[in-house]
């Protein structure tokens, strides 16, 4: 058995664009660094509610724009779609103009679901950080919040973002 070829950023962009035109594909997928599709189940309403609340709090506290499920090109894990992506307004202008994948947004958020495996989450965190993302926020199944940066996990955000999620989201 031979090792799968890692695609270049240009190849991943091209493949992502081709898949975006394929109406037969489900809406929730990512691409590995080898160009393989990774299918995800449709997010639950609870999951989407948490994502919307996080995006709202990011915009309110930090300004800029926060969107749910934007495609991010990583250096080592292909194209991933974090639950929430935040960047200052000027960075979004480039994305909107180029209609392209986002590279190294300032901050991404992953809201864990029951199907997430620890190794998969650790791989995503490392891929995001190696791609230049400053901070990765992980929201656990019971509402725990971790802030990951290049120097490890932290209890507080480097951006002074103070996330307060209602306990009923996790009851």
Chain-wise SSE layout:
Layout: H1 9-20, E1 29-31, E2 37-39, H2 45-62, E3 65-68, E4 72-73, E5 79-80, E6 84-87, H3 89-98, E7 102-103, E8 107-111, H4 118-130, E9 135-139, E10 145-149, E11 152-154
Parallel strand pairs: 4-7, 8-9
Antiparallel strand pairs: 1-2, 3-6, 4-5, 6-8, 9-10, 10-11
Helix content: 25-40%
Low-confidence stretches: none
SSE pattern = HEEHEEEEHEEHEEE
Rg over CA atoms: 16 Å
The major beta sheet can be summarized as:
6 strands, mixed
How much β-strand is present in the residues? 15-25%
Shape: globular
The average pLDDT is 91
Number of strands: 11
List the strand order in the largest sheet. 3-6-8-9-10-11
Structural class by secondary-structure content: alpha+beta
Cα distance, first to last residue?
Answer: 46 Å
User: How many H/I helices?
Assistant: 4
Keywords:
alpha+beta; globular; 171 residues; six-stranded mixed beta sheet; 22% strand
Characterise the protein shown here.
Helices cover 31% and strands 22% of the residues. It is of the alpha+beta class and 171 residues long. A 6-stranded mixed sheet has the order 3-6-8-9-10-11, sandwiched between helices. Strands 5-4-7 form a 3-stranded mixed sheet. A two-stranded antiparallel ribbon has the order 1-2. A hairpin with a 5-residue loop joins strand 9 (135-139) and strand 10. The radius of gyration is 16 Å and the shape is globular. The model has no long low-confidence stretch (mean pLDDT 91).
């Amino acid at each position: 058995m031979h090792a799968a070829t890692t695609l270049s950023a240009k190849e991943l962009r091209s493949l992502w664009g081709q898949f975006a035109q394929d109406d037969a594909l489900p809406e929730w997928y990512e691409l590995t660094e080898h160009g393989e599709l990774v299918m995800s189940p449709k997010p639950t309403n609870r999951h989407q509610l948490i994502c919307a609340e996080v995006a709202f709090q990011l915009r309110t506290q930090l300004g800029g724009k926060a969107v749910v499920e934007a495609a991010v090109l990583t250096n080592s894990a292909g194209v991933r779609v974090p639950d929430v992506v935040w960047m200052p307004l000027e960075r979004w202008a480039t994305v909107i103009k180029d209609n392209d994948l986002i590279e190294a947004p300032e901050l991404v958020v992953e809201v864990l679901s029951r199907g997430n495996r620890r190794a998969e989450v650790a791989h995503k965190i490392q891929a995001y950080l190696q791609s230049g993302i400053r901070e990765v926020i992980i929201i656990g199944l019971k509402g725990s919040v971790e802030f990951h940066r290049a120097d490890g996990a932290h209890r507080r955000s480097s951006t002074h973002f103070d996330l307060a999620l209602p306990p009923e989201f996790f009851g």
